[in-house]
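DM from R.C. (forwarded with permission)

"hey, sorry to bug you on a friday — could you get me a structure for this? deadline for the figure draft is monday and I only need the backbone to look sensible"
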Amino acid sequence: MASASSTIEPQEAAHFGRLAADWWDPKGSSAMLHRLNPARLRYLREAVDLHWGGDDRGFAPLAGRTALDVGCGAGLLAEPLARLGAAVTAIDAAPENIVVAEAHARQSALAIDYRAGSLPAVRGERFDLVVSLEVIEHVTDPRAFIAGLAAALAPGGLMVLSTPNRTPLSRLALIALGEGTGMIPRGTHDWRKFLTPDELTARLGEAGLTVRDVRGLGLSPAKGFVLTESTALDYLVTAVHA
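My reply, with the result:
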C-alpha cells in the first residue's frame, strides 16, 4: 500500500476541502451528491444482501462487519453505512472535510472513525466492506489506488466503486452542463481521467480482484438518478478477491 500515498492530487484535495462547510446542504455545492445518494445506497444495499445472504427487510445488514469509506468527503456515505450496522472507518485527503464529518457525526450520535489522509492511514487493517464512490477519477494513479483498496479488503470481503464513464454523454452532462451551469462546482472533473467499465475492470483484475457486477447510474427526468443498464453516464461496480 505504500504506493497509494502517491495517488492524492493536492489540487483535487484542496478543491473539495474548500467545499467542506457546504457539504451537508442538499441545495449547496454538493447537491449533485445528495441526489446521487439514494440510488447509490440502493445498489449498495442490494450488493451487501447478495454477498452475505442478507434479508432486504432487515435494518442492520452490516451488523458485526467493518466498513472502509475511501474519499468520504463530509460523510454522506459513511453515516448511512453506520446506520446499517457497520463499524465504519472513513478517510479523506482534505482535513477540512474530516472536521465537518466529525461534527456532523456527533450531532447524529454516530460513532465513525474519521481519519484525514489517504490509504496509508489504514495500512495493515482489513475491512469486510470497502467502498469508494466518485473518487477514482480524482486520483493521480488509478492502478496504485486500486492496489491500495485491494490490500484493505479482507478475505471474503466486498468492494463497491462508482465513477463516471468517459463518454460524450458524461462530458456533456457533467462538465458542459453540470459545471457550465454551476450545478457542479467548476473544476470538479477532468473528463480525460474518467475510466470506462472495461478499463476499470482491467485495473481491478491487475490487483487480484474479480468484478461481479456492473450497473449504470442514469438520470430520469421524472425520478432523478436511477439504477439502469446503461453505463453511458456513470456506473457502479462490485468486486471481490479472485
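R.C.: lifesaver. The longest strand covers residues 153-164.
me: no worries. The beta strands are 66-70, 87-92, 113-116, 127-133, 153-164, 209-220, 224-228, 234-241.
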